[in-house]
From TrEMBL:
This is DNA (cytosine-5-)-methyltransferase. It comes from the Eukaryota. It comes from Nilaparvata lugens. Residues 10-20, 58-75 have a biased composition (Polar residues). It is an enzyme of class 2 (transferase). Its EC number is 2.1.1.37. GO terms for cellular component: nucleus. Residues 382-396 have a biased composition (Basic and acidic residues). GO terms for molecular function: DNA (cytosine-5-)-methyltransferase activity.
Length: 409
């Protein structure tokens, strides 16, 4: 099975008369509600909005470049020609899941000044709050994000998200598509709406954005998404970054993403054996996993378990799956059983891929000399200095010819 439903966060109830595309684009932007969590920005009137320093935007620092390269942002300037913003990045993550984007930013060493996220899945929220609860801010359901609320959190540098794909994937015979209000597919239009409204209140600051969804969708859905985002997608397979197949479409204005396009002639340099727990006499029977979904049988290859332990068939351990996805081992260990943990991973982004996409943004923000230290203690080693950092990557990923993991210098 190639693809199954992925992000379930922000799923509307079946009885909800959700939105149409026009509704999403023209939604009333009345003032903030009072039902925000205690960590969300305060303010229900313009008078209460905090004034924020205007970042270096394309309007402030125009790019003098008559021959616009293909690897450019929407304003026509390659990242190399944009001035540094001299601060940490400010992020809005929609359909946040387990905060894969935050993990990628940390591994890249990009300091996060503010991270706002929209997610309603309770298990996903439990994981995100464990790791980032003191530095991130929950905004609740994406459908509650009005223009006034968005103005409360500006400026924003990066908007990213992947709306639920279960109503789009061909694997789902009962899929409802993008426009049926009974399903979650229509939440895509809220991503479009939020991005549009945020641009209008973002104080001129350039917004980079990233949207992801399943590859295995009908052409009509793909054309609709292309129309509203104004771009063709790039197909990226995680097998170029880890020992796991995971083809996904990505739309973005971040320069250079097309260089990550899947090439059928590319070989994969990573082996499943390198991600298995060491010193446990565990042996991989295959070189890589198929697409990991929310279903336990997605870990079976040709009717066989992919791992032997002491010569006997054994299942993949959750810590090994976490490493394959690019998370620290035990990242999802928040009192959940293995099936719940796999379901969260099956809906998550592959962190290795997101690192590669976001890497061009590194020069624009202050370099964090101690990347990913918040999560490293999960690996069982206390980190006191950058020299003590634990490199969890397999040996082949450090030395593979012609390919570097995001973050390699």
């Amino acid at each position: 099975m190639d693809d199954t439903p992925c992000h379930n966060g922000n799923r509307p109830s079946k009885s909800a008369s959700d939105i149409s595309p026009s509704d999403a684009m023209d939604m009333d932007t009345a003032g903030c509600s009072n039902g925000q969590s205690e960590r969300t920005p305060k303010g229900c009137s313009v008078a209460q909005l905090r004034k924020r320093k205007r970042g270096n935007s394309m309007e402030d620092t125009p790019c003098q470049n008559d021959n616009k390269p293909s690897t450019s942002s929407e304003s026509g300037c390659p990242v190399a020609q944009l001035e540094k913003r001299n601060r940490g990045i400010r992020v809005l993550s929609l359909f946040d899941g387990i905060s894969s984007g935050f993990v990628a930013l940390q591994k890249l060493g990009i300091p996060v000044e503010a991270y706002y996220y929209s997610e309603i899945d309770e298990l996903g929220l439990r994981v995100a709050k464990k790791h980032f609860g003191d530095v991130s801010h929950s905004l609740g359901d994406i459908r509650s994000l009005t223009s006034m609320k968005l103005q409360c959190i500006t400026p924003i540098d990066l908007v990213m998200g992947g709306s639920p794909c279960n109503e789009l994937s061909r694997v789902n015979p009962y899929r409802l598509g993008l426009n049926d209000p009974r399903g979650s597919g229509a939440l895509f239009y809220h991503f479009v709406r939020v991005l549009k409204e945020l641009r209008e209140v973002n104080h001129g600051t350039e917004i980079f954005w990233l949207f992801e969804n399943v590859r295995n969708m009908n052409d009509s859905y793909l054309k609709e998404i292309n129309k509203y985002l104004g771009k063709e997608p790039v197909l990226i397979d995680s097998r170029m970054f880890t020992a796991m197949k995971r083809e996904r479409y990505f739309w973005s204005n971040i320069p250079g993403m097309e260089l990550l396009q899947k090439n059928p002639q590319d070989s994969h340099p990573f082996q499943l054996q390198e991600f298995l727990e060491k010193h446990q006499n565990r042996k991989a029977k295959f070189s890589m996993l198929n697409t990991v979904t929310t279903q336990p049988n997605s870990l079976i290859i040709n009717g066989s378990s992919p791992v032997l332990m002491n010569g006997q068939p054994d299942r993949m351990w959750m810590t090994e799956l976490e490493a394959l996805f690019g998370f620290p081992r035990s990242y999802t260990d928040v009192g959940l059983n293995d099936q719940q943990r796999q379901a969260l991973l099956g809906r998550a982004w592959c962190v290795h891929v997101i690192e590669a996409i976001l890497k061009p943004l590194v020069p624009l923000f202050q370099k964090n000399e101690r990347p990913f230290l918040r999560c490293l203690p999960l690996l069982g080693k206390k980190i006191d200095s950058p020299k003590d950092s634990v490199d969890e990557r397999p040996e082949s990923s450090k030395n593979a010819p012609g390919l570097q993991r995001p973050g390699d210098q």
